[in-house]
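### Sample
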Amino acid sequence: MANITVLDQDTINQIAAGEVIERPASVVKELLENAIDAGSTAVTIETKEGGLSLVRVTDNGCGIPAGEIPLAFLRHSTSKIRSAADLMTVSSLGFRGEALSSIAAVCQVELITKPQEALTGACYSIEGGQEKSLKEVGAPDGTTFLVRNLFYNTPARRKFLKAPATEGGYIADLAEKMALSHPEVSIRLIQNGSNKLFTTGNGSLKDLIYMIYGRDISANTLEVQADSPLMQVSGYIGKPVIARGNRAYENYFINGRYIRSRLISKAIEDAYKPFMMLHKYPFTVLHLTIEPELLDVNVHPTKMELRFKQEDQIYKALYQALSDALSGKEFIPEVSAGKEESSKPVSSQQSKERPPEPFERKRMEEIQQRQTLQMIREYAAPYGSQPARKCSRPHIASSSESPSSIKSPASQKQKETTERLPRPEQERPACAQGQKAEQLDLFDGKLLSEQARSRHQLIGQLFDTYWLIQYEDKLFILDQHAAHEKVLYERTMKSLGQKEILSQQVSPPAIIALNAAEETVLKQYRDAFSSLGFELEYFGGKEYAISAVPMNLFGLDTKALFLEILDSLGEDTGKASSDLILAKVASMSCKAAVKGKHTMSRQEADALIGELLTLDNPYACPHGRPTLISMSRYELEKKFKRIV
């Protein structure tokens, strides 16, 4: 066995750097955090070859005095804290004093900096942890870091990096996250000479969401503002229609720090559960403000993780804030007309056309209305009153065709005929061509409201599964299975919450065998099971007999039901166990819902709709599937080419 020795300083620095600097994005993160801590209002990031050959970060912050520059590159030297007690009240992004020393240990670094009060700046060079030069130079206020040749002295680590394009993608993603965490700071990202990101720094989070994620996502967000004794929540959350298949769009920041937290993610996803399908994740950009004393940020060198002192309370506060923001909204997905004849090439002129501005929409609607009325007039005329047509289809004007180019009879005759035709009862804003359908939000005259009940027109059943309902200028399609699931779930939750629980005897009793972990969970929550209508008796060995189940669950697989609830209790969910059992029992009751391909009478369908509209959130079943979708009259008329 080799003798124990103390490692040399270079080896120590490289080992420490391995914890902080994993890839070029790590360099950008540390320098960007330092720039924000320095009070910068504008930061420019330039990279080449994915940051492998060059990372340049320039800011207009407070700068570093020339006499403190060598000290800044020593391990555990920082201006953010002074003692261990300060770790309990950290408000800055950086505080460990490891960033610059770690970067300098594996890169060639040049620093140019000038405080505002200094007459001249300083230029400092350090490579592999070894100082090269420190000289006086002319420089603007602020700091510029030039980091070259990452891992030049540790080629083994360089082999584990990915392609430059991939590493550049990590940097771009990080820059977007940092911009969202500090909308008051203007951030510019230049990669290989091309501008990839430029934020204004005007402090508007909504503007940033539009700039980074685009119009479709920005238009489908809800603002969140909530205060509780433990935390303040602000930002934007997405409607279920823009949900994604992974957590990449879950953005949350605690005291301005970009982090990842299982607790925060779970609170967000649990709040969305009634509105979202399984394996879908919401879009969020949330700023959480929590007292530093309730956080431990000194968990990992990358500062991407933290611990909470009151996890349950923080979970509940965030869950409640998001639940309140989502409640009361009418989330009925709207079916768009879609792209027709997508195989047709689009001309360059058409592809450059922009959607109409708001003040143009009224004019376009009037043009479309005249075209529609003209076609009605022509086809409503008695047979033989019009000259024979060469083509069996009417001429439909294209979007690039002006109104004057539409073939029609004399304008005076058209005017007289048009005036005789009935006008629509209310005007509807025209939709820009090519605009994607957005999820319906809370609007005047909700479909599912007592006031609208008398105006529902139940058309009939389709495919023995769906019910068609006309309401004002929209067609609503109701999934009878999903709607019945929702009604049964809420009915069961209500009865369980009010302790109106009846048990049904199981004969013969169901015998289940439990392992040690399951037995421990059962002993812990046995009273909760009993209060919900389960009757269990010890049967010997590791077996238990279930002699009764809640009335609404009778007929289901007793063993599978009980084990599913038990497994859920064994997970560390952050949710109160009694609430979890309640929700699971109610969820299992959905299995009794009417299935698709089942003929329902109009009276049954009408009663189902009547009960559905009494619910707080009738728009999705317990598994997240929509109970209703809609199609506007406008979209339907586009399908029939009555509007082009």
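The first helix runs from residue 9 to 20. This sample (DNA mismatch repair protein MutL) is used throughout the tutorial notebook.
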